[in-house]
């Protein structure tokens, strides 16, 4: 791996760390900062795809409003590959929050994000997050953990 590639991998890892902090602070604008205007995002919820920044901003806000106290989002085993101006990051998303009774709610989902470097800045151009489903019922498998 070249020094430039190593630096780009670090940049994308640091971008994710800032993203995790923005989510924990429920900061919608900071969460939107690395998202490209031409994003196509496959979220956990309908519709099948989000293509407008305003729609993604609304979904982000809705998600933050649903979360309880002590919200955290991490990708413990984040993988990143960079080739020139294209970066791909993937891993299992761990989202946790504390309920009013003190118990912790944890969900795991799958996530893949694609970034393009534009004018020296990494921007997410595609995201795909999903929960596995139970074929017998069609229900999302929310209780799975690695």
UniProtKB/TrEMBL annotation:
Q: Which Pfam families match?
A: SnoaL_3
Tell me which positions the record assigns to the signal sequence.
none
Q: What one GO molecular function would you report for this record?
A: isomerase activity
Q: Please give the coiled-coil regions recorded for this protein.
A: none
**The keyword Isomerase appears for this protein:** yes
Q: Which UniProt keywords apply?
A: Isomerase
Which residue range or ranges hold the SnoaL-like domain?
15-133
Q: What is this protein called?
A: Ketosteroid isomerase homolog
Q: Which organism is it from?
A: Blastococcus aurantiacus
């Amino acid at each position: 791996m070249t020094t430039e590639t190593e630096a780009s991998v670090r940049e994308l890892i640091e971008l994710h760390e800032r993203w995790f902090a923005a989510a924990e602070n429920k900061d919608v604008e900071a969460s939107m900062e690395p998202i490209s205007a031409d994003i196509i995002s496959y979220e956990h919820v309908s519709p099948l795809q989000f293509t407008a920044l305003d729609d993604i901003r609304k979904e982000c806000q809705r998600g933050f409003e649903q979360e309880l106290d002590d919200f955290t989002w991490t990708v413990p085993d984040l993988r990143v590959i960079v080739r020139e101006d294209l970066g791909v990051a993937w891993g299992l998303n761990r989202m946790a929050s504390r309920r009013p009774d003190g118990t912790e709610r944890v969900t795991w989902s799958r996530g893949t994000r694609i970034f393009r470097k534009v004018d020296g800045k990494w921007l997410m151009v595609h995201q795909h997050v999903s929960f596995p489903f139970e074929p017998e019922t069609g229900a999302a498998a929310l209780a799975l953990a690695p």
